[in-house]
From TrEMBL:
Pfam families: Radical_SAM, TatD_DNase. InterPro entries: Aldolase_TIM, DNase_TatD-rel_CS, Metal_Hydrolase, rSAM, rSAM_sf, rSAM_TatD-assoc, TatD-like, TatD/YcfH-like. GO terms for molecular function: DNA nuclease activity; exonuclease activity; iron-sulfur cluster binding; metal ion binding. CDD domains: Radical_SAM, TatD_DNAse. Gene3D superfamilies: Aldolase class I (3.20.20.70), Metal-dependent hydrolases (3.20.20.140). It comes from the Bacteria. The lineage of its organism: Bacteria, Deltaproteobacteria, Candidatus Acidulodesulfobacterales, Candidatus Acididesulfobacter. This is YchF/TatD family DNA exonuclease. Residues 280-481 form the Radical SAM core domain. Keywords: Exonuclease, Hydrolase, Iron, Iron-sulfur, Metal-binding, Nuclease, S-adenosyl-L-methionine.
Length: 481
């Protein structure tokens, strides 16, 4: 298991921090993310010491909405210094967000400066985006306001690198769904174990399993068994047990999936048998990301939007640290459960790793799993042989990206790189048409697809599909996954 959010630097752990690490090992908590604060007097130096001394502890950098800080420029300077020194260990900006909770009866007045909090929140979101990092979001009594801010960034020209709503305590599943629709993960803490919080258990029951993280937020929010006492990372097991019980899922399977979810969101390296960006789940399908290399450089690809390269799809960062082996792909797929098919897709052309694709697909087919391939249809041209025939042994369904009704338009929007590397005279568009014909001979379910660009004549592409007697799939522009 991974405790995805804790505060190991706090004084609460000073007396027995070594015992806390021993308990982590004893109860199978292999890694933790200990939040690093850039605020004044919040022991950043202790966080740095812990991270440097323990290979299994990662950290974040940020300022809590209720913490004190000198200035926004000071936050940026502190971030740049520490991110540079700890780059491999800093996995997010956080915790950041909005906290409008105020015990007015104790203070006699409301001291929340909402404008200042929102300014700080936006500043740190943009700091994360500029550094291609996900965000860990703290929200208390401000779910609507935080959602509006996050939605505005999601709908803007800013690139998104994922995030998590930490210690989720919303009122209902609809509140969680809003953040899920933006691509965020939902993290569940010890509150779910409290007797009065049946609504949180009901929410967890219907949350998509592949979007759940677990955390302690220790030393705060000890689970019911230890309520009123100091919390610690080893207690994350009680959160896992509670959620698995609510979902009626085998505990070990659920623990395994939460590790994969955490590895995927934060792009964690060094977690044995777990690999970031290789496999991810959307609805009932597992998508496999074999490579980030492409035969084309399509103008509509999410990798090439807004003048920058972005590998985020539905909250998943698909930038591979290395191209995965057959064993790594299979391990990544089977950390998931309850899926109907496996799709070779990702942010790269799967057939560029044809041998690994075949080996993985063969293993899946032997298990009776439906296998689909999303491809640019240029494999025959790349390899100079009939790859479609070879794929027939391994693939149940194939979706071929046509995206044009003629060669000139195809070259303009897909920008095929194959022209530069293949024998003279090759026509990529015609090669795809031939690949469609060959695929029909050997693969049961064949479809062609097109992205709905404004100047594309969709009806002409549909007509090509009709003439070739294959299915047609229309894909909305800028709606990946």
């Amino acid at each position: 298991m991974i405790d995805s959010h804790c505060h190991l630097e706090m004084k609460d752990f000073d007396a027995d921090r070594s015992a806390v690490f021993e308990n982590m090992e004893k109860f199978g908590i292999t890694h933790a993310i200990s939040i690093g604060s850039l605020a004044e007097n919040e022991r950043l130096e202790k966080t740095i010491q812990i991270v440097n001394e323990h290979g299994n502890i990662f950290t974040t950098l940020g300022v809590h909405p209720k913490s004190n800080y000198k200035s926004l420029s000071d936050i940026k300077n502190l971030f740049e210094i520490n991110f540079s020194n700890l780059k491999e260990k800093v996995v997010a900006i956080g915790e950041i967000g909005l906290d409008y909770f105020e015990e007015v009866e104790k203070t006699g007045k409301n001291t929340i400066d909402k404008k200042k909090q929102e300014e700080l929140f936006r500043f740190q979101i943009e700091l994360a985006l500029a550094n291609k990092l996900p965000i860990a979001v703290h929200i208390r009594d401000a779910y609507d306001e935080a959602y509006e801010i996050l939605k505005n960034y999601h709908n803007s020209d800013y690139l998104f690198y994922g995030g998590v709503i930490h210690c989720f305590s919303g009122k209902n599943i609809e509140e969680a769904d809003k953040f899920l629709d933006l691509g965020y993960f939902i993290s569940i803490a010890g509150k779910i174990t409290y007797r009065k919080n049946q609504h949180l258990r009901e929410i967890a029951k219907v949350l998509p399993d592949e979007k759940i993280l677990i955390e302690t937020d220790s030393p705060f929010l000890a689970p019911q068994k230890y309520r009123g006492k100091r919390n610690e990372p080893s207690y994350v097991r009680f959160i896992a047990e509670t959620i698995a019980n609510e979902k009626n899922i085998e505990l070990e399977k659920f623990k395994e999936l939460t590790v994969q979810n955490t590895v995927n969101l934060f792009s964690l390296s060094g977690v044995d048998n777990f690999y970031p960006a290789v496999a991810y789940k959307i609805r009932d399908s597992i998508y496999v990301n074999l490579t980030n290399n492409c035969t084309n450089q399509c103008i509509f690809c999410p990798k090439y939007q807004n003048g920058a390269i972005n590998f985020n799809v539905k909250g998943y960062n698909l930038e591979l640290k290395h191209e995965p082996s057959e064993a790594e792909v299979l391990a990544s797929i089977f950390h998931y459960y309850n899926f109907k098919e496996v799709v070779f897709c990702g942010l790269g052309e799967p057939t560029l790793r044809l041998n690994v694709l075949k080996k993985v697909a063969a293993h899946l087919k032997n298990k009776g799993i439906y296998v689909r391939l999303d491809t640019d249809g240029l494999a025959n041209a790349v390899y100079g042989r009939n790859v479609a025939k070879e794929l027939g042994e391994y693939i149940d369904g194939i979706s071929i990206s046509l995206n044009a009704a003629d060669s000139d338009y195809y070259n303009a929007i897909c920008r095929p790189q194959i022209k530069k590397n293949s024998v003279s005279g090759i026509n990529p568009f015609n090669s795809i048409l031939e690949f469609i014909d060959e695929s029909k001979k050997y693969i049961n379910d064949v479809a062609v697809s097109a992205v709905g660009l404004k100047d594309l004549n969709i009806e002409k592409v549909k007509k090509i599909a009709e003439e070739k007697k294959v299915k047609f799939k229309f894909r909305k522009y800028n709606d990946v996954g």
